[in-house]
What we know:
Blueprint: E1 17-22, H1 30-39, E2 44-47, H2 54-67, E3 73-77, H3 80-83, E4 88-91, H4 98-105, E5 110-114, E6 131-134, H5 152-162, E7 166-169, H6 177-182, E8 187-190, H7 192-195, H8 200-214
Parallel strand pairs: 1-2, 1-8, 2-3, 3-4, 4-5, 5-6, 6-7, 7-8
Amino acid sequence: MYQQVNSASARDTAPAGIYVLFDPATKPEWLTVLRGLADVGVRWFQLRTKRATSLLRQDLLRQARGALPAGTVLICNDDITAAASCDGVHLGPDDAEPASARERLGTSAWIGASCDDPTRANAPEFAAVDYFGVGTWRRTATKPDAGTPITPDILRAFVSAAQRPVFAIGGIRIDDLPTIAATGAAGVAIASAVWDAPDPVAAARRFVERWQEVAA
């Protein structure tokens, strides 16, 4: 088992609200932006940088963890080894099994998984999962191979079946939030709509405020 480098309050921060996926390679001032996103209410962050080595991801995660305040959660996409430097890992369908991640990272780590099939939400392979990312909501350049977009009914069925928090993900726009909130989803995972916006902090503020309005 790796030694998990969790922030002190990470396990107390529920999977909910706006969850921002970020890639430091696209933004030289990325640490400043992360701090700004936290200042406007983003609490969940995921490092998603596909071309980096595991060692580089570990370094980026340590920098990000140092920049983010207590009460935020920092997740690594795909890389269980690098995830020992943050609060947990998010796994896709072609990644390691959640049970393996749990064994290696321990009980304090957050384990997320991607799935789009409500009938599999309680499959044994997902027993170690704390939350789900469900999508794609819309086709997106961030993940062009994500498959056919889901409908609100599919998302609602997944939320009902999963009995764990669900983030909708994939090409989500701010005007989608009322529909997504109505399904019972715990939050939305956002990449380009925040991270690639001309003013990421202002974009995040709009998402946070709108989600608070519609999810109340």
